[in-house]
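Quick check before the chapter quiz. The format below is the same one you will see on the exam, so make sure you can read both the input and the output lines.
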Amino acid sequence: MPPSTEQTLLVHLLQQGFHIKSSCQRRLGAHAVFELSLTGGQTVLAWLRPSSSDSDWSRQVFESEIGLLRWLSTRSAVPAPRLLHVLQSDAGNPWSAFVTQGIAGEPIKDIYSRLSSWAKEELVRSYADFALKLFGLEVPQTIGSISVRSFPDELVVIPRIGNASHTRASVVFSTLQQYLQYLATLKKRRAFTLETKEQDRFRAQASITQLIAHLRRHLPQLDERCLRRVVLAHDGLGDMNLMVDSNGRITGVLDWWMHSVSPAILAADYPPWLRYDGINDPRFAAPGKLWLETPEESTRLRAIYQEAVKVNNFYYTALMQGAQLRAAVGWVFDIEDDLRCARMRQWTLSAFGPPIASPSAIDESRCIIT
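Here is the expected output.
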């Protein structure tokens, strides 16, 4: 019987000088991860490179995350995992991995129901502290993903890698308008692959064109600074990659391969477990959607979040003005089935009103589809 992934990984880490006493696999974020207890009493985590049939995308994601973790550890107080070692793949080790310090706490999904009302308020304030620290980092002013060159503090923006290989962009975007073209193309092509009937494809693509047309009308109403300035954003925050302790403090933020450099108006947002808009609106959400918090308590906690981020007027402005735009972008990246984009169409009508006559065509040359 061939050795397991865990056995192969342990052998190579032992060869690299890690004195491992025991190991176990854990459910943390989107990576396959192993928790290792060392003979000196420390606990470390070994994260495997994301698996994909597209090895080039998987390699790019892996390298981008490693570079970003190194940069964050030297340039910020953001609670990202502290990188200790990188294990590159070779003939004897088909698995790339990196090792970080252990992380206290539990995924928010596992601990939230046990938090007191006071701890939930502290969690909102802890998230605000994290969000403002991330928002304040200086990054190159174009839209895409981060690549770190040979010097740890030299950031370069590359075409957006995306959270899946088919979402990669072919170019770096200099404006939000260009980015919206890419998003429209991405959504239309996904709808084209999901729908089997020509009539359903037509309805889906018409709904997407309408959404983008409404957004174009909406943009001039927004603060120009929030549209032009770009910031580092985590695009995949959810139930399993926010680590929290019993006092409501965020102890770690995982899955940094799901990042982007995005316009501030898209990056400033409420804590993900308190969102009831867009794809999270119960009127339009996919069947089976679950929420960690009730609508009433979410409203109260979002108000606390608003107060907490007012110390940064720029962030607060982006947060308050960008609600509809962020909700619309959420529909583009919605991974749930939406036949003919019917749920998205109903949300668009609710948010923006009647359809726009003769919306302009979309340039469909901004996306790699594999």
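If your answer matched, good. Residues 20 and 38 are 4 Å apart (CA to CA).
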